[in-house]
């Protein structure tokens, strides 16, 4: 704008017509820019609303209706569409009956009319002004169930050598490793001995590379199970990335026979320790998608997870409890919305093998599908339902219940959920997590907090998966807070020190000698200007060598708990490099 005014101010010396024409042109340009800016602002607000759309209570003084069963849709299923790009489905954010009356809702499509700026509610207000949750005061104590965590152990991940089960790669790495190493007689090195692209490619070499990653992941599960058992944890989710790209259309592969022995060893240890293992295929594994290729990908992914669990060779009850948790996925409003999505799910569920059907369970999510959306189809198709308390607090049906743990734990609904498990003789499990402190909008509330503060009002013998960023430490936090069985075994770590892995002895520093006295030409000793340095005997600190069985197990004092926000304590402190400051000599004048 300032440049425009300067341009007008410097118009002296020009003819009157030229000046007027320039003014009109500038005025028109300014109006166009203002209109573009206003359109842009409205578009941004509309998109924010689309992203942040969630549950808003109608009013605080309006009592919730009684919990009632939902009617199952009997609509005709849509025909799956062929073709299209092979891209993952994204859940559709839907504006449902839970939307607040009087709040503007964006129409489908990008050409939706945007209301005036003063009519668009602020996103933060829409989250902050929701009706407060109603939580239960019940605590499931004394605790008799199993607490678990998902996929990764932070303490073992920081060990040297590291112990974890999610090593993965890119497809480009598989293709690259089809070429032999520059020196096949030596081990691969990230810089000195890489695959040589000038040599002929062999698909078997690339396959061997990705299989070795999977075997390394599976072997580390044994150590993780032993570690869990030592500290009273009997429940863990296996990583879906254990065998990279096993369910891929082009680069996929079967786990038998190359992984049969390793997985059988994992199952043997889990059986001996009474450890429950489950899986959770990713968010893009959607059986209700209207796209044929997405459904095909989902079925392959489920077949991979089923094979992995079957090869564990667990005892009958533990094998039944080894489930695969799935989300319904998107609502696909452009393809009929929720009723049509449920119809497609029914049709595609019928295509699954009996082994997959025995393991498959559904979970309510934090985007579109509430407990009341999923419970009817779970009862219809004999599929267990996992109740996720955190997801329920974000997506729920206000016609059926309120936000919080109280209503969803009432017998009218909890008995029905439990029945979906007992009729298949599978041990029920639930999920619990909490939002990060200060989260207001639905989008922010979806993010899991590092640890949780309490236990949900579940039965005291429940298998409860704690979904938190700090993994096993979140379980430890609950064990310590409520004095659960095993809490007395857990001790605090020493910052930047570990007594459960090899440590080399530091090199012994040589003692500095006292400077010799100078002599004059007549052999008389003169005093040295330098101060005398006393020789000190260096006391070498011994190294540490641990056995493979002791590696990563917490040492003799079980130091495995790190305080919130101090994960860096698990690794040796990095040396701070002091930058040398070069002294600049003053030049003589």
Distinctive features:
single chain, 589 residues, alpha/beta, TIM Barrel, eight-stranded parallel sheet, two-stranded parallel sheet, globular
How would you summarize what this structure contains?
The chain has a domain at 146-164 and 228-492: TIM Barrel. Helices cover 33% and strands 7% of the residues. The chain is built from 17 helices and twelve strands.
Describe this protein's structure.
By secondary structure, this protein is α/β, with parallel strands linked by helices. It is built from 17 helices and 12 strands. It has a domain at 146-164 and 228-492: Divalent-metal-dependent TIM barrel enzymes (TIM Barrel), CATH 3.20.20.150. The protein has helices at 2-9, 16-52, 123-128, 154-157, 171-176, 203-230, 260-273, 292-310, 316-321, 337-349, 354-359, 371-381, 389-394, 405-408, 411-422, 442-445, 472-481, and strands spanning 146-150, 235-237, 276-278, 324-327, 360-363, 385-388, 429-432, 463-466, 491-492, 518-519, 525-526, 559-561. Strand 7 (429-432), helix 16 (442-445) and strand 8 (463-466) form a beta-alpha-beta unit. The model is unreliable at 3-9 and 54-124 (pLDDT under 50).
What is the end-to-end distance? Answer: 51 Å
- Helix count equals 17
Q: Roughly what fraction of the amino acids lie in strands?
A: 5-15%
- General shape: globular
User: Would you list the SSEs in sequence order as H and E?
Assistant: HHHEHHHEHEHHEHHEHEHHHEHEHEEEE
Number of strands: 12
* Biggest β-sheet: strands ordered side by side in the sheet: 3-2-1-8-7-6-5-4
Low-confidence stretches: 3-9, 54-124
Main beta sheet, described?
Answer: 8 strands, parallel
CATH topology of the domain at 146-164 and 228-492: TIM Barrel
User: What is the structural class?
Assistant: alpha/beta
Percent range for helical residues?
25-40%
Using only C-alpha atoms, the radius of gyration works out to: 32 Å
At the first level of CATH, the class of the domain at 146-164 and 228-492 is: Alpha Beta
Average pLDDT, to the nearest integer? 83
What is the name of the CATH architecture of the domain at 146-164 and 228-492?
Alpha-Beta Barrel
In the CATH hierarchy, what is the superfamily of the domain at 146-164 and 228-492?
Divalent-metal-dependent TIM barrel enzymes
Biased composition (Basic and acidic residues): 565-589
GO cellular component, one term: nucleus
Pfam families: UvdE (PF03851)
Region (Disordered): 1-22, 57-135, 438-458, 501-589
């Amino acid at each position: 704008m300032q440049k425009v005014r300067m341009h007008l101010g410097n118009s002296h010396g020009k003819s009157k017509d030229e000046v007027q024409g320039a003014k009109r042109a500038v005025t028109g340009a300014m109006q166009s820019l203002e209109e573009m800016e206003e359109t842009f602002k409205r578009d941004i607000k509309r998109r924010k609303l689309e992203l942040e759309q969630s549950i808003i209570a109608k009013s605080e003084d309006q009592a919730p209706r009684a919990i009632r069963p939902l009617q199952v849709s009997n609509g005709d299923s849509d025909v799956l569409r062929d073709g299209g790009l092979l891209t993952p489905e994204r859940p559709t954010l839907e504006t449902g009956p839970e939307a607040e009356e009087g709040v503007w809702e964006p129409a489908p499509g990008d050409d939706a009319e945007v209301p005036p700026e003063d009519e668009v509610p602020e996103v933060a207000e829409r989250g902050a002004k929701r009706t407060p949750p109603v939580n239960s005061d019940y605590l499931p104590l004394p605790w008799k169930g199993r607490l678990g965590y998902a996929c990764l152990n932070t303490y073992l991940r920081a060990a040297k050598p590291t112990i974890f089960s999610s090593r993965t790669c890119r497809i480009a790495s598989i293709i690259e490793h089809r070429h032999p190493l520059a020196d096949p007689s030596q081990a691969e090195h990230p810089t000195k001995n890489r695959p040589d692209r000038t040599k002929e490619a062999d698909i078997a070499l690339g396959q061997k590379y990705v299989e070795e990653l999977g075997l390394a992941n599976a072997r580390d599960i044994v150590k993780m199970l032993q570690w869990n058992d030592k500290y009273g944890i009997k429940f863990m989710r296996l990583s879906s990335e254990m065998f990279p790209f096993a369910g891929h259309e082009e680069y996929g592969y079967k786990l038998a026979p190359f992984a049969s022995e390793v997985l059988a060893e994992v199952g043997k240890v889990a059986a001996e320790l009474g450890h429950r293992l489950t899986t959770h295929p990713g968010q893009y594994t959607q059986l209700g998608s209207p796209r044929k290729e997405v459904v095909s990908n989902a079925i392959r992914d489920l077949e991979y997870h089923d094979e992995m669990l079957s090869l564990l060779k667990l005892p009958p009850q533990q094998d039944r409890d080894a489930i695969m948790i799935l989300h319904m996925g998107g609502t696909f409003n452009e393809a009929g919305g929720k009723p049509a999505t449920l119809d497609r799910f029914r049709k595609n569920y019928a295509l699954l093998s009996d082994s997959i059907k025995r393991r498959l369970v559904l979970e309510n999510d934090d985007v579109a599908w509430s407990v009341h959306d999923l419970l009817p189809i779970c009862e219809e198709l004999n599929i267990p339902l996992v109740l996720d308390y955190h997801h329920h607090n974000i997506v729920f049906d206000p016609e059926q219940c309120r936000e919080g743990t109280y209503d969803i734990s009432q017998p009218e609904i909890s008995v029905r959920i439990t029945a979906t498990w007992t009729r298949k003789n599978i041990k029920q499990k639930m999920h619990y997590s909490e939002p990060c402190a200060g989260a207001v909008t639905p989008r922010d509330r979806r993010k899991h907090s590092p640890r949780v503060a309490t236990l949900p009002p579940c039965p005291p013998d429940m298998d409860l998966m704690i979904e938190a960023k700090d993994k096993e430490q979140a379980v430890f936090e609950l064990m310590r807070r409520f004095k659960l069985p095993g809490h007395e075994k857990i001790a605090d770590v020493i910052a930047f020190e570990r007594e459960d892995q090899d440590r080399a002895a530091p090199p012994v520093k040589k003692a500095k000698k006292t400077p010799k006295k100078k002599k004059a030409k007549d052999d008389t000793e003169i005093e040295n200007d330098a101060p005398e340095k006393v020789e000190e005997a260096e006391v070498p600190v011994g190294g540490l060598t641990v056995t493979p069985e002791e590696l990563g197990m917490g040492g003799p004092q079980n130091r495995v708990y790190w305080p919130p926000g101090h994960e860096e304590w698990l690794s040796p402190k990095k040396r701070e490099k002091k930058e040398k400051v070069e002294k600049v000599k003053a030049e003589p004048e």
